[in-house]
């Protein structure tokens, strides 16, 4: 079973949504994945996801309410097969934090999506539409990543 860690900045908007969406889509396809999420920053450690993200996700059938924010930990670089960064800054931060003998593959999540957009924009300071756009991108990324895993194991 592959172990996947989604990483954004605060771990209250984008990566919790990615965790919830990927869990649901993997279950739909019968793919067994272990999924968590974390932030590179510590401001929201212990908090549930942002209310606006929980509401937008719930309208699409994703329940994020049990998640609590945590910060990326050194052990994560050994315990996960993939760290999927939500934007380029998260990706760069992870590469800088990564120990040289790390075992996980640190990738930009949307590089697995079919479209050309590479970054999941931070919706925190914007309006409701920003959360919907993030969920659209995450749904595409999740389908693309599951296609990738299926091709790899074929
Ligand atoms: P996220 O969004 O990285 O998608 O969870 C953010 C949430 C909060 C903050 C930054 C980004 N913040 O600075 O508090």
Overall helicity: 40-55%
Element-level helix/strand string: EHEHHEHEH
The named CATH superfamily: Response regulator
Are any ligands bound, and if so which?
4-nitrophenyl phosphate
End-to-end C-alpha gap: 15 Å
CATH topology (level 3) name:
Rossmann fold
DSSP, total strands: 4
**C-alpha Rg (nearest Å):** 14 Å
Proportion in β-strands:
5-15%
The CATH class turns out to be Alpha Beta
> What oligomeric arrangement do these chains adopt?
single chain
* Corresponding CATH architecture: 3-Layer(aba) Sandwich
- Tally of DSSP helical segments: 5
Shape: globular
Poorly predicted segments: none
Mean pLDDT: 97
Major sheet: size, sense and barrel closure? 4 strands, parallel
Structure description:
The protein has about 150 residues and is α/β, with parallel strands linked by helices. It has a single domain (about 1-154), classed as Rossmann fold (3-Layer(aba) Sandwich). About 40% of the residues lie in helices and about 15% in strands. The chain has helices at about 15-30, 50-60, 75-80, 90-95, 130-154, and strands spanning about 1-10, 35-40, 80-85, 105-110. The protein has a four-stranded parallel sheet. Strand 3, helix 4 and strand 4 form a beta-alpha-beta unit.
């Amino acid at each position: 079973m592959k172990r996947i860690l989604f990483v954004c900045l605060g771990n209250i908007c984008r990566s919790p949504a990615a965790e919830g969406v990927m869990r649901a889509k993997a279950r739909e396809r019968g793919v067994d994945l272990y999924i968590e999420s974390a932030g590179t920053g510590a401001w929201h450690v212990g908090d549930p996801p942002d209310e606006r993200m929980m509401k937008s996700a719930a309208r699409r059938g994703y329940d994020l309410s049990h998640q609590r924010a945590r910060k990326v930990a050194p052990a994560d670089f050994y315990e996960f097969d993939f760290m999927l960064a939500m934007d380029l800054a998260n990706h760069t931060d992870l590469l800088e934090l990564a120990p040289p003998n790390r075992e996980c593959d640190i990738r930009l999540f949307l590089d697995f999506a079919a479209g050309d957009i590479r970054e999941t924009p931070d919706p925190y300071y914007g309006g409701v539409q920003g959360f919907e756009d993030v969920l659209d991108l995450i749904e595409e990324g999740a389908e693309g990543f599951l296609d990738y895993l299926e091709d790899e194991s074929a």
